[in-house]
Amino acid sequence: QVQLVESGGGLVQAGGSLRLSCAASGSIFRFNAMGWYRQAPGKQRDLVARITTGGSTDYAESVKGRFTISRDNAKNTVYLQMNSLKPEDTAVYYCNSAPLRGYSWGKGTLVTVSS
Predict the structure, then answer these.
(1) Torsion sign over Cα 19, 86, 55, 102
(2) How are beta strands 67-72 and 77-82 bridged, if at all?
(3) Mean pLDDT estimate for the chain
(4) How many contiguous H segments (helices) and E segments (strands) does the chain have?
(5) Reduced to 3 DSSP states, what percent helix, strand and coil does the chain have, rounded to the nearest 5?
(6) Angle at 91 between CA 89 and CA 95, to 5 degrees
(7) Strand partners, 4
(8) How far apart are the C-alpha atoms of 1 and 15, rounded to whole Å?
(9) What is the distance in angstroms between the CA of the first residue and the CA of the last residue of the chain?
(10) Contact criterion met (CB below 8 Å) for 82 and 89
(11) Contact status, residue 51 vs residue 71, Cβ threshold 8 Å
(12) Closest Cα to residue 38, out of 102, 86, 75, 101?
């Protein structure tokens, strides 16, 4: 059974940084591009960063130049380094395959950016 566990969120002031981690069980990392998604209150869940099995990355325009996604296949872990955080980055952050392939969502990790 695939399990996704996100961690690293917290409260940070605007302009600050956080590093999120996502540990996965099972074979999800071996065969899938992985993504970080976020969901702000009252809004839909959106993909903000994606990394392929080969390490190629792409980002939503809203985070490009500020966020960096990486993966450690030996540890079954994907990371999201978030710099220059803005209040509009406040959301619950989740990881999952990208594109989605039916894996259950984890609980996410809350990022709150104060102005």
Answers:
(1) positive
(2) antiparallel
(3) 95
(4) 1, 10
(5) 5, 50, 45
(6) 105
(7) 24
(8) 38
(9) 40
(10) yes
(11) yes
(12) 86
CB 67 within 8 A of CB 86: no
Using an 8 Å Cβ cutoff, are 90 and 113 in contact?
A: yes
| Pairing of β 10-13 and β 109-114 | parallel
Say which residue the tokens 């104060």 belong to. Answer: 114
pLDDT tens digit string along 12-59? 999 999 999 999 876 788 889 999 999 999 999 999 999 999 999 999
Q: Which two tokens stand for residue 47?
A: 């993909």
Q: Report the run of H or E that residue 80 belongs to, with start and end.
A: strand 77-82
For residue 48, give both structure tokens.
């903000």
Residue 52 backbone phi and psi in degrees, to 5: -80, 175
Q: Amino acid letter at 22?
A: C
Residue closest to 97 by CA, chosen among 39, 31, 43: 31
